[in-house]
Amino acid sequence: MTQIYLNNTLSRRKELFEPIDPQNVRMYVCGPTVYDRAHLGNGKTPVSYDVLYRLLCYVYGKDHVTYVSNITDVDDKILNKHKESGKPIREITEETYNWYIEDMKKLGNLEPNARPRATDYIQDMIEIVKRLLANGHAYEAEGHVLFSVDSMPSYGTLSGRSMKEMLAGARIDIADYKKNPADFVLWKPSAADEPGWNSPWGYGRPGWHLECSAMSSKLLGNDFDIHGGGNDLIFPHHENERAQSCCAFEGSKFARYWVHSGMLMVDGVKMSKSLGNFYTLDEVLEKAPAEALRLLFLTAHYHQPFNFTFEGLYNAKASLDKFYNALLKVKEVKVEEVPADERVVNALADDLNTPLALTYLHEMVNNLNKAQSDAEKIKCKSELLANAKLLGLLWQDPEVWFRGGNNDQVETAEIEAKIKARSEAKKNKDWATADKIRNELKEQGILLEDGPNGTTWKKA
Ligand SMILES: [Zn+2]
């Protein structure tokens, strides 16, 4: 079996990945807070974990991997958006959630096994707070319940920060009712017009960190294998998740491997609204197909800071043109089921070395271009597609790519299934059904063209 090595933030070194149960490898990745359009950084992180998920499925089998990525749908940022815009909270979170899912599909990310929403797990959060109060790791003060960092000698281990450094952290709220200024909120009171739930401590809402502790333990168990997220979450979010879970569930070590992706920069500087270099995913995807952005993300190592430039995006688009051009030339050549190249698997297994994996993909495209005999073409095409799949690339019909690209692989599969059903209907001389399918597709803006080699389609 392939041995996977991952850079573990907890130990600060690259470690051999040994799952707790190889029959059920479990990964939790912090998802977005749904209050606005996802930005470029919100796109990069899930692409990295999607490749890790694909690798885990390849090595352990798809039925033996559970990937959970949450949605934070209760948070002060959402509340602020509601106050600013006057829109109902539910409307904000639903709309933003749908945008996010659409962006994830466009980027070619597989759907995780579960996308839990925080508001569906409030009772589980309350249970964790009760446990922490009962075992002396939390205390009540002025309507809040706070986690006592002094009650956990190893607090700070994940981020490697001293108490002094943690206190200097900009994201710590100072309040006189805290025993230690680093103590953080598990539960806080809500005003009557704010979102809230009844609890033993009154009407209120959970602290952000608590959400992930509750959802991960409920869906993956108290102990699981991989916890991911952007490296800006290491402190305080992940440090606090870990503190809550380890202290609430006695004997739990929580996540074994903490895998963090590097931050995204634009033109060499941090992306920020004030610098005018802030881009949402949908803004960037107006300039190039999402698959080009995915390829661009994969040209750098996930752990390193990533520098986005539009020039890089256009270069990635040009690389994909080359790839799809090679595939277009062998469009009629059949594809055989082949295993991925060991070199590609080993590159990914070495802490997701996607830049190295991509060099092999380029080599395979060159081989495909040079292939002469039919047998060679079948071999080279099958090899290229099997390896590209591991990276979530080259899933489009090459003709569709050159027609401007289709950003939705689910949609592509649905259209092709309908075309197949129509061909079947025509074969059975069921003209009514065939016409009905053609008209249905036309209504979706998909035009069919019947030719000697079958039916092709394009967007109107
Ligand atoms: Zn989280």
Which consecutive residue ranges, at least 5 long each, have pLDDT under 50?
A: none
Total helices: the number is: 16
Percent range for β-strand residues: 15-25%
Name of the CATH homologous superfamily of the largest domain: HUPs
The name CATH uses for the topology of the largest domain is: Rossmann fold
CATH architecture of the largest domain: 3-Layer(aba) Sandwich
Rough outline: globular
Rg is: 25 Å
Strand order of the largest sheet: 4-3-9-10
Outline the structure in words.
The chain starts with a strand and ends with a strand. The chain is of the alpha/beta class and 460 residues long. The protein is 45% helix and 15% strand. A hairpin with a 4-residue loop joins strand 1 and strand 2 (13-16). Helix 4 (122-134) crosses helix 6, helix 9 (290-298) packs across helix 10 and helix 15 (409-427) packs antiparallel against helix 16 (431-443). The strands form five sheets. It has a four-stranded parallel sheet with strand order 4-3-9-10, sandwiched between helices. It is built from 16 helices and 15 strands. The protein has three domains: 5-265, HUPs (Rossmann fold, 3-Layer(aba) Sandwich); 287-402, no CATH class; 409-459, no CATH class. The radius of gyration is 25 Å and the shape is globular. The chain binds zinc ion. Zinc ion binds at residues 30, 212, 237, 241.
